[in-house]
Amino acid sequence: MAGIEYFGPTSLGEAVELKSKYASEARIFAGGTDIIVNLRDRVLQVKYLIDIKKIPEMQELSYTPERGLIIGGAVTINQLLEAKSIVEHYPILVQAGKSLANTLIRNRATLVGNLCNASPAADMAPASLVLGARVVVVSQAGWREIPVEQFFTGVKRNALKPDELVVRVEIPPVKGKGVYLKKSRIKGHDLAQVGVAGFLSQEGVLRLALGAMAPTPILARGLDIYRREDLKQEEKAKAIIEQVMAQVDPISDQRASREYRLAMARYLLRQVLGILSEGV
């Protein structure tokens, strides 16, 4: 990592100026759980690191019934797990967060970093997808919001422009029941072989998302025709699962074969639908 220049801006304006100046030659640094490993292994080569932890906006973690949840770019996973508002209103984020690595990693890893890394197996992505999260980014050109379902563009690729940085993730106020289930080789210490998130709103609208089942985390399409009562009907539940499975395209890798992922996804989808059918 020799030769990398480090910046520690204390204002958002300073960070925006640095990212504009250095663009793709710079990487945003918050938890660093992925970037440090990638730099060490020479998978990633950059000239500049911009540490955002001292920027007040990046440390924001707030909830209001009107606006919902705001998670700043430097908020760690363990901060999420300890926030009463998240435990009460967004327990699916707690489930996903607890499944991510271990306590040491969660003390540094951030939700924003997990999304920006854009791994197909990112644990926080399926939960963010079913909750309708938005990624709020800024550059010298101004602000824009990216729905999280449009944020992932390929394997470890996202929709950020070279001069943009993520300030926060916003999750709208939700009422309903959510669940995240994950299968990995080593419980709590490995990337997902398959991850499935589900959310059933109080109005009965179903959302399902999967990780490690396509080049990107995916939000299943076409589920708006189903309602709460359908989840308890065997034929309807099978139809939901088949509709979701038609949208996935997993690979075989060192963690699992394609065939295993397909079988496990069906199993986890069945489990998720069963939990959601128990009511909100």
TrEMBL record:
The keyword Ligase does not apply. SUPFAM superfamilies: CO dehydrogenase flavoprotein C-terminal domain-like, FAD-binding/transporter-associated domain-like. The keyword Zinc does not apply. It comes from the Bacteria. InterPro entries: CO_DH_flav_C, CO_DH_flav_C_dom_sf, Diverse_Substr_Oxidored, FAD-bd_PCMH, FAD-bd_PCMH-like_sf, FAD-bd_PCMH_sub1, FAD-bd_PCMH_sub2, Mopterin_DH_FAD-bd. One of its GO terms (molecular function) is oxidoreductase activity. Pfam families: CO_deh_flav_C, FAD_binding_5. Keywords: FAD, Flavoprotein, Oxidoreductase. Residues 1-176 form the FAD-binding PCMH-type domain. This is Carbon-monoxide dehydrogenase medium subunit. It comes from Thermanaeromonas toyohensis ToBE. The lineage of its organism: Bacteria, Bacillati, Bacillota, Clostridia, Neomoorellales.
